[in-house]
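Preliminary data (for renewal application), flavin-adenine dinucleotide complex.
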Amino acid sequence: MDFELQEEHKLLVEMVRHFADKELTPVAPQMDAQEEFPVNNLRKMAELGLMAMTVPEKYGGSGMDTVSFSLAMMEVGRACASTAVTMSVTNMVAEGIHRFGNDDQKKKYIPPIASGEFAAASFALTEPWAGSDAAAIKTAAVRDGDYYVINGEKVFTTSGAYAGVMMVAAVTDRSKGKHGISVFLVEQGAPGLTIGKAEEKMGQRGSNTVSLIFEDCRVPAENLLGQEGDGFKIMLADLDGGRIGIGSMACGVMKACLEESIKYSKGRVQFGRPISDFQAIQWMLADMATELEAAENMVLQAAWLKDQGVRFTQAASMAKLFATEAANQAAYKAVQIHGGYGYTREFPVERFYRDVRVTTLYEGTSEIQRIVIARNILGKL
Ligand SMILES: Cc1cc2nc3c(=O)[nH]c(=O)nc-3n(C[C@H](O)[C@H](O)[C@H](O)COP(=O)(O)OP(=O)(O)OC[C@H]3O[C@@H](n4cnc5c(N)ncnc54)[C@H](O)[C@@H]3O)c2cc1C
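Predicted structure:
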């Protein structure tokens, strides 16, 4: 057993941290306040090889392992959660196309994701009536000659207004339930696709979250990802990897909460002493540091299992559940340590508190992660 990062991992962390400190941290407050999508920074991240990290170089990716992806996500999350979620979903789509696509699809769609020609990529599963119960989607695709015609509506699509390509789940055979769901690669600007209004969110306000309206949207038949009926399996399998991304981002936010809290508590004087002298504050810092350590280990273990090519669904769910819940606790404590100032925009912990809230909701709520874990340990998966 080896807990030491490899040299290439250490160099990657150093490179991403340097970039994040220089380019992401300074603009994160403005992106939050103005709801600005970070197009320029995403392009710079593509140049650094951060947008299709685990895809082989043959298809334009960086050919790195999932541990590298997780470490990079932690660093980006520590600086800006809005940029981190955009990066995570984009990598998830690149990986999905690589894993389930044919050679033509990989050659057509992965290089523009990896190079930054596409600012982002999207994963469209959720519908107004189908959130946790993703198999209940109603969006339908009907074959018409060399095309599929898609009708329906998606909600909460991350980066939907900026994505060059989207993985869209649609029913191709209603009689087969979840086995009648398929996935299509839909390009931005496809005829019949309208981008709906952007959600006004509590946090991660620099990320873009929109509905997608499909009205007789024609997609070439060759854009079917995998086989008809494989869609539910494809989306869930891709989400397993995505959960490692979200857990990693949560670790990054947690780390930022801890760093800001240490700094503030050493500088803030009350009763003639820095508040870091008070045991009540020390215990909060100690709990944050302990939970961060546990969360990082769980997330990296899930990433490592994925890299070994073994089943990692349970590990990814456990890591996402633990890291995102712990990150919410850490953000709560960070605001508490900052006192009233933590409730103002003068200090970044106010943003961390809002940014981290959604991590227990998307890519499967904490309740859904517990269902996945319970089914695994009860032998029902
Ligand atoms: C900012 C943001 C970005 C998102 N990005 C994307 C995206 O890119 N692509 C995409 O497809 N989706 C995306 N989503 C959607 C997200 O994945 C869903 O919101 C999530 O799956 C929950 O679905 P829901 O909101 O409909 O809640 P519901 O499913 O209605 O859940 C409501 C509550 O009931 C609980 N619940 C539901 N079923 C059960 C059960 N069986 N047992 C116990 N409790 C249960 C839930 O845990 C939750 O607490 C995003 C959401 C947000 C907020």
